[in-house]
Records
---
Amino acid sequence: METEMPSIFSAKRTSFVRTSVIREILKLTVENSDILSFAGGLPNPNLLPKDVLHTVMESVVKENISTAFQYGDSSGYLPLRTGIANRLTDVSWSTPEAITITHGSQQGLDILGKMFMDSDTNVLLEDPVYLGALQAFSPYNPNFFSVPIEPDGPNLYWLEEIVSQNKIHVFYVNPSYQNPSTYTWSLEKRKQIAKILDEKEIILIEDEAYMYLDFSGIVYPSVSSFRKRSDLTFVLGSFSKILSPGFRLGWTVVPEVYRSLFTAIKQGNDLNSNQFSQVVVSKLLNVLDWKGHLHSIQKFYSDKKETLVSLLKENLPEARFSIPEGGMFLWVEYPQVSSKEFMDRCLASGVAMVPGSEFSPASRSSSYFRMNFSFLENEDLELGVKRITKVYRDINT
Amino acid sequence: METEMPSIFSAKRTSFVRTSVIREILKLTVENSDILSFAGGLPNPNLLPKDVLHTVMESVVKENISTAFQYGDSSGYLPLRTGIANRLTDVSWSTPEAITITHGSQQGLDILGKMFMDSDTNVLLEDPVYLGALQAFSPYNPNFFSVPIEPDGPNLYWLEEIVSQNKIHVFYVNPSYQNPSTYTWSLEKRKQIAKILDEKEIILIEDEAYMYLDFSGIVYPSVSSFRKRSDLTFVLGSFSKILSPGFRLGWTVVPEVYRSLFTAIKQGNDLNSNQFSQVVVSKLLNVLDWKGHLHSIQKFYSDKKETLVSLLKENLPEARFSIPEGGMFLWVEYPQVSSKEFMDRCLASGVAMVPGSEFSPASRSSSYFRMNFSFLENEDLELGVKRITKVYRDINT
């Protein structure tokens, strides 16, 4: 008795909903374990110290049952918000009250889309841009503009052009080890752009999900920390990469004037964030040797990056990329192949990457692919690069 | 440097965002533990068997680290979806593939609002209606219609009138132990209304969050199970009341034609549901004596209901209510008081209830209050009723 989807029933915004090739590939690789995947943004779950985790779980079940297994404050569990305010943000106004806990930083993006974006809202993105932001914002169908980014941040000439010729309402940025380009804004550009945003009264949505993933342990000051207009500044963070995506927790630092609205939207979305995970993570923040833990993650990612870089240089010197300062990706240009054909043949040969077109608001074709290096074991990184190399050579002979 | 919220920045839909008095009261009672709260919909966290929970946690940390602490399928963790399909839904088409895991059934409501509701979409609600549905749907600003409900379900005369005079797209219902009225649709009305919805091609959003909370252990067949048009039928369920709200997990049974769209919206919202909680709950489903567990919950709620009913009859015979068949609320009419004054003076006297106006799409004033009986200990139920009685008598003398 199934019928074709009756289009009269669906809301207009659904025609702007974007699906994600990454999530489709993730599903594919779950179903077929022979596919080696460079596609996900998957941290390595073994970086979580099991013994600490076990002790924390035990104490939650023993001591926190009435908090951890109940509904909670829509803004989040206060001890967790306090922990974040004390350790994981660098803007002066990030008090515990300013921090709202969300289901991943992704939910922060959805709430901000719902809050700010109508069909006549001008939203500036980086090009390329984090795919999840496109997914969060697209259903609200704003006017997207995009500014090309370079290894040290947005092209300032283009940025000035765009903001002087258009009333831009919101600028969404991912300034540290950007997903997918891996580019990191220089200190100078952070300052300059903060100034431009203040002058033009532009809302900044700064996604700092990778802030603590620098290979040398550097922590760049956020763009937001240079802004005077803190009332127009939202900073998003996430536990997915520094602790585990399994807790599905992130946060947004919300300016005071927008707090009640942000919380009301959060309530409508899902009442409150997972209390059990919030209690566990707040305890983990207290008992983990946090500095040592971050150092071990940074070291792990740095080593994996080295491995993939060497493998590509050795096997496929035609592949072009900048060496990132942090994060979990390489952004690799494979010249002289049709990206569609390359992608399809790689998948058929048991290896997955994300095509660059996914990260373009206009889905523009691109010779770039995003490669994750944090998830596969080293032997699989090697086998994967060999499979890619074979496909590349087959096409180019 | 804070300014007034610049209205040019906020999307138009934000003027329709509804806040919840319940969540505000919840916050108040967290801050001030002297307030006795009948306001929340809070299950009792002690119904969760600690020893089983502890064993499950231990096994998750030992055996499931690579699944539980990673990203996952946007539709949900397959073993959990299978467990739900096998045990917790009664519609014939609820295969594991049909079930999408959400952050509470609340998130299912938000996704369905995003999916179906434009400003010209006619949405029929029950009157009174579950407040969370108003919060989820309101930002999409549909045209709300409402049909009065009676102790055995919607008034059929009004329902026929509304659907024959208007093209209703979506009907949102909560047919078992409704929140807030506690009314439960009769079998006869379930069948008749399923037939009307089929004839008129109306999408049904059936919220069965309380399905397993009957005081005598009866499980009413869902309205959906009587529908022929399964392609226009969504059933929502939740673990919040039968296990714990701390896991923040619910589900939606999604018709095949809408599955990819539903999943794409879920991705945009928050990528996937909390994997850690999904793994824990799927294990709990397997190891708990499920029948015994449900029985003990039903017994607990039934006893608490008896307690509150007796206390009200004894102390304040003016209060009027029907005796519910299940759930966690009484829907109490306090005649001859201004609800605003009564509410304010109750709060000032250290006792909280939710005013009926919260459950009306038009925020219409009402002499009803929703009282939860599952959370307070018996001595506090008694003390609370005494405080309410005193306020009532003070006003009425």
---
Amino acid sequence: MSVTTVNYPEEFKGFAISDPSEWSNPKLTSYIPKNFGPKDVDIEIECCGVCASELAVLKNKWSSGPLKSLSSTYGPKTQCVGHEVIGKVVKMGPDVTEFKLGQRVGLGAQAFSCQECSRCKADNDQYCEKYVGTYNGVYDDGYISQGGYASHVRANECCIFPIPDSLESHIIAPLQCGGLTVYSPLKRGIKDVLAEGIKPVVGIIGIGGLGHMAIMIAKALGADVVAISRSTSKKEDAIKMGADGFIATGSTEPWEKENYDKFHLLLNCASSATDLPLDRLLRTLQVNRPFISVGLPDIREKFEVSPFTFLQSGSVIGSSKLGSKAEAIELLELAAKHQFKPWVETIPISEAGVSEALTRLNDGDVRYRFTLTGFHEFFGTGK
Amino acid sequence: MSVTTVNYPEEFKGFAISDPSEWSNPKLTSYIPKNFGPKDVDIEIECCGVCASELAVLKNKWSSGPLKSLSSTYGPKTQCVGHEVIGKVVKMGPDVTEFKLGQRVGLGAQAFSCQECSRCKADNDQYCEKYVGTYNGVYDDGYISQGGYASHVRANECCIFPIPDSLESHIIAPLQCGGLTVYSPLKRGIKDVLAEGIKPVVGIIGIGGLGHMAIMIAKALGADVVAISRSTSKKEDAIKMGADGFIATGSTEPWEKENYDKFHLLLNCASSATDLPLDRLLRTLQVNRPFISVGLPDIREKFEVSPFTFLQSGSVIGSSKLGSKAEAIELLELAAKHQFKPWVETIPISEAGVSEALTRLNDGDVRYRFTLTGFHEFFGTGK
């Protein structure tokens, strides 16, 4: 038996760390999955996007305690990440109704919601109090969830999305988390404008993994899109992605005056909250419109804002978390209809491949998203 | 000629300071009004509410430079405050169309907007870039505006409101600024909920001058209202004002859990931003709902929020400024229809009266709003 052969369904194989200082070198490991529930689905993974949240969790930047997996009541004490999964259904619990064996599906950053609370019932399942993340999440029974840099992943069907046939797996893997994370606030943030028959004007701050998808998605939703970055280094790329305009906030131009009262929505896709010229940015919002952050910084980092900052236009600021399952399905249908494609560089999965992806992502050396591929070859699956 | 006799229309008389350290002792003074414009209206003042912003401006807390009136190009170098004016029209420019001589009118915190920009045209005149405040505001010609602790006040008709006959002047004076300041975010913040036929649930934080009017106004708008205060000392009052519930944030109860996912809107009427248990408060908001501040602190004070704080419910936070003229008229009609009445203590105007009002307001010794009255008697006007 080869070292990579998977003893499925008793065990999954994946790349995991046991020490945050080793964040860039996950090692191949075997582990038992969570106990199989009646609504659970096992996905045999074909490919998996690489999301910046992986860095934050592997480095333990979003926690003030030790690595969560160390407290697992059963299952591995190590942590495997990855939550932009495309694969096929290979096992279903008796209560699964939405899928069939062999179907191609996607899984994002959420693996469980209760489906019973008012939030779940109102298509706000990403804000369910019982939310469990696809990795580094705590199930009721104490199992710490394990992600998609792996042969298989187990999740509740309520968090799994059908994939339209016309979409290529490795290209749309990043939509499962990153794409959905920008789709939800974009859709919610301009819905009222579209309903009035007005073309929304949207500013996308930070042209990276999230921002580049946000440009495409905002365009597909019918907005005028302005890319906002510190320098002009990504201007050409942003225009290729579909941006109608570009603002370099580091320039000496009075850009906030030239763009006064312009935007219906500012979507902040930059990962740092403190580096932003927040006061100047808020001047570009129309009255009572929002600045929404999806890029999450270190847990100790803060926005510092004076109530006066908002006063010039009665603007608001906040954050948005992922998207609902309904929104994920809408997004995938939008991608199929508009055929927009995230700019993806593929890296075959292996210890070296995972390490390369994480290291280069950490260095900002990606234009604009990695997808780990070749899972079938590596794990001997896909047969 | 008595010391208080006014040489109108060449001069107004009012109570003004020339040094922020003397904030609690404005002195009777004469001054020339701004040059009379074609849309200007002179109001002979009957009474004037006392607003907490007076304290901030007299103490120069909302500025990082010296007292603004010192830089006036003409007119007084002293500052008279007051912007909850009720009085009658005694002079009108040739282009005034909305009013007639002798009509009872109100004036709030805004004395000028351009009426030409997209914001003015969309009933967002309070966010007009050319906004001039009723006092401490800078006109294009360099005159620093002078407020309503005075015999008369001059303002553009676009900022003046007709007063329904059934309302008593001294009772509804505080609606001109304070009432409007809470009405606008209340109305805007629950409009979508009402449109869906749902009864909005609104939390009013800080039961003082602004908060007590917010309770009444939110009730009149059709909301379920919960008063939120540090202790239970104002609970009985809040219930009398119409509150359906009460939360004491300083108590040891897990109030944020008991009120999880409850509010469509949190309106912060407390004047300090840093004292609030912001993280706990945001847990009580429903998904994607706002926390809006109308109480303005010292200009150096900040909200400190982590993007993570918002994540549990995708909430947003912001500030709201005054209200539009259209909203002021709606509010006065709402007051006439529902006959809600701010709790007002009257103090006859004089140097001693103004000093008492400011000092007691500064000490929090007011339940819940002062109106300065007796202007006609004091200034020998009203004939």
---
Amino acid sequence: ARQGSTLVSMKRRDKDFPFLPPAHRALTLDLFSAIDDRLDSVLLPSTVPSDVLRFQNPQGTAHGSVEIRSGSPTSLLDLVLQSWLHCKLPGGSGEINITTLFGFLNSTSHAPHLLVELIQGGPSSLVLVIDLLPRKDVVLHPDYLDEFYLETNLDGPRQDLERLPQVSPYRSPSLFIRSVLSPTAVAVTINGGKEVDALAFEEVMARHVGEAAKKVISIWIEKCLGAGQRVLEEERDGLERRDGMIKRKAVEIDLVANLPKMFGPEVADRVVAQVQKAFRVV
Amino acid sequence: ARQGSTLVSMKRRDKDFPFLPPAHRALTLDLFSAIDDRLDSVLLPSTVPSDVLRFQNPQGTAHGSVEIRSGSPTSLLDLVLQSWLHCKLPGGSGEINITTLFGFLNSTSHAPHLLVELIQGGPSSLVLVIDLLPRKDVVLHPDYLDEFYLETNLDGPRQDLERLPQVSPYRSPSLFIRSVLSPTAVAVTINGGKEVDALAFEEVMARHVGEAAKKVISIWIEKCLGAGQRVLEEERDGLERRDGMIKRKAVEIDLVANLPKMFGPEVADRVVAQVQKAFRVV
């Protein structure tokens, strides 16, 4: 595994997310490598075809990549999705860059899923979501909150980030996305502002966002992928129904609503179909 | 009913919440009257004993009232709880004033419950929660979000309030409370600040908070208490289990954790027991 992860990291550095802005790119590299390094032994090789692993629009103004690796059959992992999207806005009015990291568990565990998303709409302005998504109705199961959110102090990274002057709370326009997030979710806007130099933004990204995201990723790997999380047979149907809704909505809100505008219908259809297949929500 | 509500309002004005600060008192009067005026015909008389309808601590530094009226047997209403608490802090370091309004539906409807809470910790600083609490796991039932939250534009009052410079988002220290709120919940801190005069705070309270709360109360009465919300027999068990958890936790977090400190164990026990009895969560 040690050998394997070094190879993956090297491959990763080689790919290098060529279009993302520097601080965003460094962070993406850092987070994807953290996942690859620690989960390589339980992840199967990517089965995504090369025209989804790397795609662009006909004009060459939009570029993207979606990589999906399934968990090995004996693990609690369903799949890990890592994607980045880059799109120049019409008329030279800037660009949008989106990085997404999903870690879904399968229904032999009820532990939370991992979500990290960076949506950068300007050189020093970014929406950040870092969360472990509950797999159950936590109102009916408050012990779930205690186990995965309170005892792990998942509210700590959120509090640390929200104390920074560049950071303010973010609410998704989608009521579903707001509802799917946990009560300790990091959901913030980071804004360098006009008067602050880019350095402040880059430092927030490199130091504070990186630290918070890696803390949550560590909790996910240690607590949620660890032993002792297997669930009873009769719980699995409920988990699969709820997970299916999360995945269907994620495709609908994240991809179906955005990819056609960015990449045109043909590329969008191809990428969406591949993700739906991997998510088993066709 | 018209006659009845006039009587109730007059009685209300007579009681007058003697200990609440002026802006808080006016708002409480306004909201409680809105409920009384519009729901009087479907609410039975209060059955709460007089020493719960009005109580104080032995030293006379804390005063409170809890009134609970059940819905008539043919209505969708389970009960309405209206309470206010006033407590001088030791050493003359200020006072705390709390107003709570709960409107619970029974399990013949799956429409949301109503919650309005004002927690005033200083002359011009207040935590405000206004929400319709979902009765279902909305991740599994996104159509529930569409029906009760999107189509009613419940996000509007929240957006209006959060635009004000005196208003900033509030997160309850309780992860359960955060989870029980809807994705359009108003959960904010209103802070007059040291340099702003009390007038600004009072205006925010009278105009903006009052307007938002009354808008949400109207939506609740028209949409949730209206016809067409009755549910199937087989859904009721699930609703009752989930409602039971909300009520149990509300008593635990709102009352059991605070009343003994404010009123001493004897008064606290009496009030808690009465609420538990009305909530059927003994």
---
Amino acid sequence: MAQPTSHNAYLPGYAANQIQHHEWRTAENSAAYLLPSLKDLSTTNPIPTLLDVGAGSGTISASLAKYLPQGGQVLATDLSPEILERARSHATQAGVTNIRFQQASVYALPFADASFDVVHASMVLCHLDAPVQALAEMLRVAKPGGLVADRESDLRMWSYHPQLPGIDKSLKLLRATHEAAGGSVDGGARLVSWAMKAGARREQITASFGTWCYSTPEERRVWGGTLVERVRGGGMRQKALEMGTATEADLDEMAEAWEQWIGTEDACLGCLHGEILIRK
Amino acid sequence: MAQPTSHNAYLPGYAANQIQHHEWRTAENSAAYLLPSLKDLSTTNPIPTLLDVGAGSGTISASLAKYLPQGGQVLATDLSPEILERARSHATQAGVTNIRFQQASVYALPFADASFDVVHASMVLCHLDAPVQALAEMLRVAKPGGLVADRESDLRMWSYHPQLPGIDKSLKLLRATHEAAGGSVDGGARLVSWAMKAGARREQITASFGTWCYSTPEERRVWGGTLVERVRGGGMRQKALEMGTATEADLDEMAEAWEQWIGTEDACLGCLHGEILIRK
């Protein structure tokens, strides 16, 4: 499946700490809004199919597979064959057998119309320069009566303590870099709008908001570690220096602020994500 | 129970639309983080007691009462006897019988140490000029092994669509008015910190974040209606004009923006709230 070259690539990449955060994600902490519908589906359909689009390292996909009945199948797709290899290993290690993997672009899913009972994505559309086109493609491959489920960040909505200037700077940089790469910082707020532009009627859409919370020492290490790595040596540092949006000294200040945050016992950070379920 | 006069009063007040939003609140949409613990408690304790502090019109209190076993009791307190009368009527109408009401200040709860299995508050501490003192008082009246549960807004974290300048202005005004009245705009982010300052150890605290979502026509009417009323004729308009933080024309623009938002089919708004459970 060729990548449409007119579209943007996935900027954050797959550095060690970025992967560590990706792999922290589960159905429970990242797709809880979908679980009641999956449970309902499993009582009426013994062989449901779920397509997970832009699945990355696949921890949410494998976690979702556990909510399907024995005959249910997850198909996890991503543009990157390398990350799908990692996803495959994760599923094997987790003992999840009702899952398959296939390289695909969300803009040109290699499936017939009305192929899947559930089509799911998490933090995919917010990275794309044509999110409505991607959502329309997800709707296309969902069966009539099936569900399209999507969750996207609002990157402006990070509630944290303590208020360190270096953290604030790093969030501004993150948003600027994200937008420069073609993504939307406010995707979470625009999901209903995107869904309607992609062809859904308002009454087919159920909107909600979800969160991530980082507060325990382990959670702070996972989340703060991702940010430290991105500003110390990852793609965000390189991009910021190229674009001139931050100096070496700025980036070092950001990394130090995150390290301080990781070590602060009463530190806390919450992120707000928009969520939609579209009943096709 | 006398109100300590050194402390601030509850600014938003009880205008019709403010009440309408207050009464939209239930255990499910405003205290979901507490419900698994309440269910656990109900299996081990046939007569649990829950103190709901700053209960206002009491819809969350009455809703929580349904999660207790038959012998369980909710005691709902508020500084305002008038609003407690309304709470009492609501409970009667809802057929909730295991609930009582008592006027009290959160700063001087008229109860012995270790009186309640659960002490709960929702959007109370963020209005107070001494939130740590209030939280310490809530901890005092919780039984050892019991729970203190609290949820507070981060008023900076409103994710919405469409981006109308009048809405943005009204949120800035809301935050300024809230702070001028002695409240904290970032309470949701500071809950772990407040809890530790109030005497809790980090390992006693479980932090999470929750949300409110307004997206359907009915949800938009409830939430947007509150804001329209507050800027058209409520205490916020009066305060803004007194403080000189907005003109009549500004306030009218804000009201019109919210009216436009209410009528926008793909409009959406999410709020982010911090949550803590403290196991005493």
